[in-house]
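ingest -> validate -> predict -> emit
validate: passed (alphabet ok, no gaps, 161 aa)
predict: started
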Amino acid sequence: MRRFLVIDLDRCTGCRNCELACSVRNTSTFNPRRARIQVLRDEERNLIVPVVCLQCEHPLCREACPVGAIVEGPAGVLTVTESCIGCGSCVTACVYGGIVLDPATRRAMKCDLCGGDPACVKACEYGAITLVDADKPGLLARSEASQRAMRAIGITVEDSQ
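emit:
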């Protein structure tokens, strides 16, 4: 069954342990800029919003990739780094900010759920990140969490459609 991450903004403290765990797991470096999850912070507005790939059913990033470097894997949508040419079309296509170019390799990177055992979930001491199934309750939780995050950063639901 398809799965994805859900973020509870009320539980997130902005500690960034998820970014560190992700970068270590995926790049063997303690470099939050190389993490597949990014914690956006706006101190003035007291806003903390973790952003991660939503594992869309019809990923715009995959459709935008001119070389087919974004594919459906056993744990969800993932990038094939060796095939990526670093054009950034996928980054532009993703309206949620769930895919970015790795600052070191200049190739696309996005959450692949760590093959089904996400390091960020284990690292989150506050239970703000959960891995859920793509069943009806999971889809509802993802929808509510992503809409809340978009409202928090100033994007109305109508703007995103």
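The radius of gyration is 15 Å.
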